[in-house]
Amino acid sequence: MPAKTCYKTFSEATEERAKYPLKSGGYKLQNALRGIHDLNDTLTSHGHCSGSLCLPNEFKRWTKRVPHALADSIGWELIPGVWALSGDGVPDERLQRYAVSAEDGFLGALDQCERIRQELTVQGLNDYTFRSLSITIGDLIGMTNHAILLSESYTPEAV
Fold it and tell me: Can you tell me the distance from the alpha carbon of 41 to that of 124, in angstroms, rounded to the nearest whole number?
């Protein structure tokens, strides 16, 4: 049986999210950001941090699941969260311009997740796959922070 791709994980998350549409996106983006930071903390500490998502002796096996966790977050939280920012007060015209660009960025990260998943399957964890995963997580953190800042700039206190 072929391995499940990150695209399949993303597709399943997107289909499931469609059953539970978001009324606003800022809170969901903040939740996603916390989860991505937890993945990053565990990755950079090789499982040796407090609150780690895995034990150090499980680190290599856990790392193979990270691309799928990111793909799930992109489909379940990140892209839907950006499109739901109208519920946070972001004007529709501004949201349309931003969300198309943000979605392209998140889909680019999804492509990276799939590439990393394939490399982890063939090569296992090495310096190259570790750095690729770290860079992809960093990109997702940056894009998510940007979306959160956009939502916060339209809150009643900011306007």
Answer: 20
